[in-house]
Amino acid sequence: MADLVITPVREFRIPVTAECISPDFFAGKSLREVELTEVWEGNRRVKLGSLFKLEGEIGRTPNDCAVRIVGDVSAVRRIGYEMTGGSIQIDGEAGMYLGERMRGGSIAVNGNAGSWLGTQMRNGQIEVKGNAGDSLGGSVRGGTRGMRGGVITIHGDCGAEAGAWMKNGMIRIKGNCDVYAGIHMKNGTVLVERSCAGRVGAYMTKGKIIVLGNMGGVLPSFQFEEIRSSTKAGEEKIPGPFYVFSGDVNEDGEGKLFTRVSDNSDLKWNERFIER
Amino acid sequence: MPELLIRNGYVFDPLNGIEAEMMDIPIRDGKIVEKVGRRARVLDASGMTVMPGGVDIHSHIAGSKANCARMMRPEDHSKDPEPKTKNTRCGVGHTIPSVFTTGYRYARMGYTTVFEPATPPLKTRHTHEELNDIPIIDKGCFTLFGNNWFVMEYVKQGRIEELAAYVAWMLEATKGYAIKIVNPGGIEAWRWGHNVRRLDDMVPNFDVTPREIVRALCKVNRLLNLPHAVHVHPNGLAEPGNYQTTIDTMECAHDIVTETHPTMHVTHVQFTGRKGWAWPDVRSGAPEIADYVNAHEHVSIDPGQLIFTNVTWMTADGPAMFALFKLTKTKWFNADVESETGAGVVSATYKRSNYVNAIQWGIALELALLVKNPWKIFLTTDHPNGGPFTAYPRVISWLVSKEARQRLVDKINKTARTRLNLPGIDREYTLHEIATITRAATAKSLGLQFKGHLGVGADGDVAIYNIQPAKVDLAKEYRAVRKAFARAAFTIKDGRIVARNGEVVRSTQGRTFWTRPQVSEGMMKTVTSDLESKFDDYYTIRMANYPIEESYINASHMISTSAEV
Amino acid sequence: MSKTTSQNIVCTFCASGCDDLQITHDGRTVDSARNGCAISLSRFTSTKESRILKPLIRTKGTLRPTTFDRAVDRAARILNSARYPVLYGWSETSCEAISKGIELAELVGGLIDNTTTSCHGPTILGIQDVGEATCTLGEVRHSADLVIYWGCNPIHSHPHHTNRFTIFSKGRFRKTRKDRKLIVVDVRRTDTAKLADHFIQIQPNSDYELLTALRTAIKGEEIEQDSIAGIPTETVEEIADLMTDCEFGALFFGLGLTMTAGKHRNTEAALALVRDLNYVTKFVIIPMRGWFNVTGANEVSTWQTGYPYAVDLSQGYPRFNPGDTSAIDAVARGEVDAALVVASDPVSHFPKAAVKHLLGIPIVTLEPKSTPTSEASEVVIPSAILGIEASGTIYRIDGVPLEARRVVDPPVGVRSDVEILDAIIRRLRRLRGRR
Question: pTM, whole model, 2 decimals?
Answer without folding.
Answer: 0.97
